[in-house]
């Protein structure tokens, strides 16, 4: 598990040093540096040129551009630094040179082949789901390499349907993640049960079409003691399609797996967002590590309630609040760690954190 991250001179992150826990909730207004913080991890994950000792700025997980897009605008020195500490007391301090027209960062110190091998071993179980996810489709892609071999569902969630088709009837969900209304311990049963918290009575079915190597997915709803007819994803709205890969990623959480999710609340009703917060909390109890970038106070409150209900230890919850510091010489991101007590109460409420409800309500009174 990652326990500490240091970043210097990367995009808006002039000098960030913060502890990391099982659940890391990144919050703050738009453009405050949350995505940049996550991108430091994604850059390391997508870079595999160990012999050359370089980081690829553009790859499968993230596309930064060129060196000029990566370096902090007001940097006093032309280098980018990333430091990671793991729970085994392994510490990696990597310094990269800057070339404004290049799409790679060359290592100045550290980042050896031996270090990267250990880093890969510590992070080989990894799932990233971006804010831009796959929407409702008639046919979903399949990939035996991504799904069967790597146990991934794609950064857009594009292979979620194929994953469910392949493993939904055989994968046994960790008992800590099981929904009390699920009809079995299998993955598909728990996907349907958790989706039911977002859209009551919904259940999904998948069918692999060999001729085109695609998967058909459809939804049904409870209707008395039976089910409705099947509905195509395009006819049930974006919410269920957008949340499906999130639920799947959380239900397949396991020890030492790193799960990075951007905006899990997209297209989801507030009640469903709170339930996702609960599921995120339960996923961390498998000893997975989660990085959740969100603008939803409902996601956060779902996690806070989970703390109060003893579903997750308060020591495992880390809220990272991002804002900007502006002086007459520079502007950079600042990260503040907010702690949760056993009752779900936060130790600090910075400006623009959870106060918009009160701001708007005061205008209506």
Describe this structure in words.
There is one protein chain. The protein is globular. With 365 residues, it is of the alpha+beta class. Strands 2-1-5-6-7-4 form a 6-stranded antiparallel β-sheet, with helices on one face. A 6-stranded mixed β-sheet has the order 8-13-14-3-15-16, sandwiched between helices. Strand 11 and strand 12 (226-227) form a beta hairpin. Helices cover 27% and strands 27% of the residues.
* Helix percentage range: 25-40%
Strand order of the largest sheet: 2-1-5-6-7-4
Number of strands: 16
Could you report the average pLDDT, rounded to the nearest whole number? Answer: 93
Tags for this entry?
2 domains; alpha+beta; 27% strand; 365 residues; six-stranded mixed beta sheet; six-stranded antiparallel beta sheet; 27% helix; Rossmann fold; single chain
In short:
The chain contains 10 helices and 16 strands. By secondary structure, it is α+β, with helices and mostly antiparallel strands.
Write the layout of secondary structure elements.
Layout: E1 2-10, E2 13-19, E3 23-27, H1 34-46, E4 54-56, H2 67-70, E5 79-86, E6 91-97, E7 104-109, H3 113-122, E8 126-129, E9 140-141, H4 144-149, H5 160-167, H6 187-195, E10 202-209, E11 214-223, E12 226-227, H7 238-251, E13 258-262, H8 270-284, E14 289-293, H9 297-308, E15 317-326, E16 331-338, H10 356-364
Parallel strand pairs: 3-14, 3-15, 8-13, 13-14
Antiparallel strand pairs: 1-2, 1-5, 4-7, 5-6, 6-7, 9-11, 10-11, 11-12, 15-16
Helix pairs in contact: 6-7, 8-9
